[in-house]
Amino acid sequence: MENRINKLFNSKKKNILSVYFTAGFPNLNDTLTIIQELENSGVDMIEIGMPFSDPLADGPTIQRSSEIALENGMTIKLLFGQLKDIRINPPSNANAIAPPFSRGNSELPLVLMGYLNPVLQYGMENFCKDASALGISGVIIPDLPLQEYLDEYKSIFEKHNLKNIFLITPQTSEARIRLIDEHSSGFIYMVSSASTTGAKSGIGADQELYFKRIQSMALKNPTVIGFGISDNKTFSKACESANGAIIGSAFIKAIDGSKDLKKDIKDFVKGILGERALV
Amino acid sequence: MSYQVNEKGYYGNFGGAFIPEMLFPNVDELRENYLSIIQEENFQNELNDLLRDYVGRPSPLYYAKRLSAHYKTNIYLKREDLNHTGAHKINNTLGQILLAKRLGKTRIIAETGAGQHGVATATVCALMGLKCIVFMGEVDIKRQAPNVARMKLLGAEVIPATSGSKTLKDATNEAIRDWINNPLDTYYIIGSVVGPHPYPDMVARFQSVISEEMKKQLLEKIGNENPNVVIACVGGGSNAAGAFYHYLDNLNVRLIAVEAAGKGIDSGHSAATSVLGKPGIIHGSKTLLMQTEDGQITEPYSISAGLDYPGVGPIHAHLFETGRAEFASATDDEALKAAFLLCELEGIIPALESAHALAHLEKLNAKEQEVVVINLSGRGDKDLETYIKSQKG
Ligand SMILES: Cc1ncc(COP(=O)(O)O)c(C=O)c1O
Q1: Cα A174–A178–A183 angle (5° rounding)?
Q2: Nearest chain A residue to B184, by CA
Q3: pLDDT tens digits, residue range B9-43?
Q4: What is the ipTM of this complex?
Q5: Residues of B labelled catalytic
Q6: Cβ–Cβ contacts within 10 Å for residue A274, how many?
Q7: Looking at chain A, which runs of residues are DSSP E strands?
Q8: CA quadruple A125, A129, A134, A139: dihedral sign
Q9: I want to staple B379 with a disulfide (CB 3.0 to 4.6 A). Which of A6, A22, B86, B107 is the partner?
Q10: How remote is the CA of residue B87 from the centroid of ligand 1, in Å?
Q11: Atom of ligand 1 nearest to the CA of B203
C-alpha cells in the first residue's frame, strides 16, 4: 500500500498544513476528537505527540502539555488503544468517538512524534509493527540520530512501511543534509531556527536566507518547516519556501483550558489557513 | 575486555550520542577535536600549570590513622576536598574551559546539583573572563544555598530549573535546551561522565589525574602503586571514573562504586541506579536509568544533591554489567553517620556525597594488611546546614 505521506505530497505540493498535538492533553481521551476535528477543518497531516518526562527539544508549552498528559495517565499502549478504530468506518466499537469524518474515512497521514526512551521500552520492533497496523505513516524521534537509525532500525521501519522523519536546522551542513535526503523517503522537517519548540515567533531575514539555501539544494524529498510557526502570517511565509509548515506550540496554547474543543480547533485552523479553510 | 570508549562512543552496550539534530554540529565539533586538542603540548602545559598553581594539585593522599585503627585496616584518603573550590569538579571544568577557549566559544553554560560543579564552572569562567550561566534545580537551590551565593559572587548567573523534580536531571535538561537555543557562541561544560559521546570519555580523562596521582603517591608511601580496594561515590560518576581510571585494567584492584540508597533501596526514595535502573536513554546517552515501565524517567531521591540523579555515566553501566566494579549503596543515615565519624576521628568534614563512599567501610570488612583508598571527593562546607539539623535529630 502506498504510504499516506507519499500520497499526500504527490497530490499536493503547496500549503500543506501539519498540526502537532500532545496525546492526553488537555484530557486523556481527547485524542480522537482532536484528530477528527483537525481533519474536518482542513488540516493535511497530523503529528501525534507521545508525551515524555524529559522532552529535551521542547520549550515550556510542550513541556507542560507533556507533563499534564502524563499526569492524565497517557502511555504509548493507551494511545494505541485509542487509535484502534481510526482507519475503520464505522468503528468496531459503536461508542467510540471516531469516524465518520466529513471527508470520509480518515486518509490523513498520521505521524507519531516522541522521544526514544519510551519507544525503546515498548520495543522498537513491536512499536513499528503496532503503529503500522493502526495506519500510522511516519515517526519523528528527535533524539534518534541518523547513524543510529541506519545501523539499528532502518530495516524495521522499512518492513512496516513507516517513514522515519529527520530534522535539519540552520546549522546542519550541506553534506549532512544530502545524507539525510538520501536516507529519507517521506519528507524533511526543517527546524526554522536554532531553538526548542515554541521559542520564537516570526520569520526573520536569517531564516529566509536559510529557507532559500535549502530550496536551492533541490532535495528529492519534500520539505516542511516547523518551530515558530504560529499564525496565518508565519504559515504563509513558510509555505513560500517549502511544501508546507508544522504548527505545535501555538495549537497547544489554543486548546489549553478549552471549553469547546471542536469549536476552538475549527477556529484555530481557520485562523491559520485564512480563506482556504473548509467550513 | 576493554573499559575504554570505542570509536563509536560506546562502552560495551552503553554510551553513544542520542541527541536532537539541533545539537549535532556542536557535539560533532567536540567529538572531532577533543582528543587532538587535549593532547597538544601547549594545552597540557597550560592545564598542568593551572592544576598545580591554581587548584593546588597534586591533592594529598592522606593515611587516616585513627580511621584505620577504627576499622582495623589501612585507609588512605585521596584529598580532593582540598582542591580549590572544595571538590574534584574543578579538574574537569579547567580542562573543559581550556577546550572551549580553543574552540572559540565565549559563553559557558553548566548544570549543577550540589552546586560544586556550578561553583567550579563559575570559578574557571572568572579565571578566563568568560560569561557563565548555571542551571540548578529549584529544590537544590534551597538545600545548597551557600553554593548559590558563591556562584553569584563569582559572577555567574544562576537560573532555577523549575520543571520535573527540580533537581539535577532537570537542571541538565535546561542546560541542553539552552545549548539548542544558543548553538554558535556557547559551550556546555557537563559536570560528570554523562551526556552524549564524547563527554563521558572527555570528563573521565580530565578526572583521571586522581588515579594517576594515587599511583605515584602509593608507590612513594607503601612501595606499591596498587591498593587492594578503591572506593568512590557515584552520582553521575566522575570522581569514581577518575579514581578508577588507571586501575581499570588491573583486575587485582577491587573497584567499589557507592550509590545513594536514599531512605532505602526499596523505599521509593532512592537514587541507587544500578539496582533500580534499566537500560535506556538519558541526556543523550544509553545507560542504566531509573524509569517507569513506560519509559518515563523517574525522580530519584538522596539527601545528597550531588548523588540525586536517575542515571549513571555509561562507563559505570559498563563496569556494572561486566562486573569490573562492585556496586554498593549507602542510605542517608549511613552517610550521615560516616560523615560524623570522619569529623570525630580525623578532623575532616566530608561532603555528603563523599560520606557515602566512607559509609561503605562499615560493610567492607577489610583485612588488617589491606590498603583501601577512599576518594574523598569534596568537603562538607556546603552541607553544614544538613549536618547541624540531623545532629539535633
Ligand atoms: C563532592 C562531590 N562528590 C561527588 C559528586 C557526584 O558527582 P560524580 O558522581 O560525578 O563524582 C558531587 C556532585 O555534585 C560532589 O559535589
Answers
A1: 145
A2: A171
A3: 999 999 999 999 999 999 999 999 999 999 999 99
A4: 0.95
A5: 89, 111, 377
A6: 12
A7: 16-22, 45-50, 110-114, 138-140, 163-164, 166-168, 188-191, 223-226, 244-247
A8: positive
A9: B86
A10: 8
A11: 10
**pLDDT value of position A141:** 98
Q: Within its chain, how far is the Cα of B71 from the centroid?
A: 26
Among partner residues B19, B291, B297, which is closest to A145 by beta-carbon distance? B19
Q: Is B290 in the pocket of ligand 1 (CB under 6 A)?
A: no
The residue behind cell 564524547 is B198
* pLDDT digit string, tens, across residues B85-122: 999 999 999 999 999 999 999 999 999 998 999 999 99
Q: CATH assignment of B56-87+208-392, given 3.90.380.10, 3.90.550.10, 3.40.50.1100, 3.30.470.20?
A: 3.40.50.1100
**Choices 3.90.1150.10, 1.10.3720.10, 3.30.470.20, 3.40.50.1100: CATH for B20-50+89-203:** 3.40.50.1100
Q: What whole-number distance in Å separates Cα of residue A146 and Cα of residue A118?
A: 18
pLDDT band at B144 (very low <50, low <70, confident <90, very high): confident
* Contacts A148 to B, Cβ<8 Å: 16, 18
Cβ atoms B295, A126 nearer than 8 A? no
pLDDT the model gives residue A99: 47
**Is B192 touching ligand 1 by the criterion CB < 6 Å?**
yes
